[in-house]
Amino acid sequence: MTGPGGHLAMLPVVADGIPSPSQGVWHLGPIPLRAYAFAILAGIVVATWISVRRYRARGGPEGAILDAIFWAVPLGIIGARLYHVFSSPDAYFGPDGNPWNAFAIWNGGLGIWGAIPAGALGVWIYLRRRGLRLATVADAMAPALLVAQAIGRLGNYFNQELFGSPTTLPWGLQIDSGVLAAQGMDYPAGTLFHPTFLYELLWNLAIAVLIVVIDRKFRLGHGRVFWLYVFGYTVGRGWIETLRIDEAEHVLGLRLNVWTSILVCLVSLAIFIVLSKRYPEREPSPWLPGHEPEDEDRAEDTTSTQEREGATSGRSAASAASAADSDTSPAASDTSPADSAGTPTEPDTDDALAAESTSTGATDPDADSTTGR
After folding, report:
1. CB-based burial, 23-37: b 16+ in 10 Å, e otherwise
2. pTM summary value
3. What is the CA radius of gyration of the chain?
4. Residue boundaries of the structural domains of the chain
5. pLDDT tens string 95-134
């Protein structure tokens, strides 16, 4: 396929930068279909698939990840939105802000710093009820979260948001003039910007592969894979955040998210080191102590045995009662009513035949010869 001038269609993309999508919303009748929402949903689906496979490999019970995600996703979205709103308050509570826009999550604005702790709270609530370890689930989900974040960044691409400063690099991102004007930016036509969505997408995928390799080699456990994920992500997020030029709260000359990245990065590194010294081996079971399947099976076996013994005792008692009834029943008694009244009983069949034979032998002279024949 060729573009203007007979060049390959890809060449203008390299020469003129990466074009932004012409639209990020399509309509199915009155229903808007937003690329941002599709990116978030796709990330959740892929992350779920990865997490289920990894958790199963660590001995986790079937269905636990799916149930945990039903708790994590809604709480994670709420936490992500709350962080974004309170870290960028001017757009919602400033002089020109609209508080109702805080609920318009389809326009973008979900902070990972709020999503992870809020989602983790939902997972913890579910796991405590099941008697499962949070650390095992966190380790299983860690690389999956990075993949989900990478896919979710495509939503920023379709929304033409969260891009970086101007650049002359060939992979610079084109941004529509109308989008720039809406954000109060005035740049010459044809200006390219750092595609920070692409930087973070590639960084997250690279860190996901790295921690999977490290986990397989060293058999990390007790939450160390998760904290390695946090450390790797914040290292990348810190330098990518410095490229962005969208409005944000600044503290001591740096964006708030840069300080958050630095703080979380240091904390995660410290926790990883402490856990590595305290728990050099992977946990033996995804279950909390006292909730292992063996104990549950043993309890079920004990209950079943007691039920069987109770049923057997019941049948024995019923049999004994039935036998007692038959012994006292007139129809089943060996003594007939006539016998009980003193009437002579009839002889047994064998005795009667023997007596008859003896009698016949005594009166019939041919009996012996007949028998001999």
Report:
1. ebeeeeeeeeebbbe
2. 0.73
3. 41
4. 31-294
5. 888 888 888 887 778 888 999 999 999 999 999 999 999 9
